[in-house]
Design brief:
Layout lengths: L19 E5 L2 E9 L3 E10 L4 E5 L10 E5 L2 E5 L20 E5 L4 E4 L10 E2 L2 E5 L11 E5 L2 E2 L3
Antiparallel strand pairs: 1-2, 2-3, 3-4, 5-6, 6-7, 7-8, 9-12, 10-11
Pfam families: Kelch_KLHDC2_KLHL20_DRC7
Keywords: Kelch repeat, Repeat
Length: 154
Amino acid sequence: NWEVVRTKSSLRPRPRKEFAGVLYKGKYYITAGTVGRSGQSDELWCLSLSNMKWQELKHDSTKRYNHRMWAARGKLFVLGGRTMENGFDPHTAEHSIDDFHSYDIEKKTWSKIPICGDKPYDISEYCVLPIFCGKEGTEEPSAVIVWGGYSALD
């Protein structure tokens, strides 16, 4: 049976859609998305599953939605998505983002990561699959597969 789980803090993220979320080491992280009529978000939030309290972390540099996020080696990785920061129509692929950022959980800092070799262009609404090839019981993916989605080339 399903049950409603309540958080234990008055501080919590605004309702949103088209955000990215990942579970990592007992915490659930969400970033960005669209929030009501006010548009897009660049917020990063963390829900501790041990005490069910939300904490707002440092914001990303770009408001985005329809992006994806995964976690490894103490970092959150965010790739692509879409933006309306320049007043663009949110339903056209021309406004997808081609950037790749990481958030260092311990240092609480964002960094832009240069992409080497072939890259998936500016991409949104894609699938990401972390690959776990390490010892049994390790929580860290050794690679990720990115496929599908939309780009400005479509």
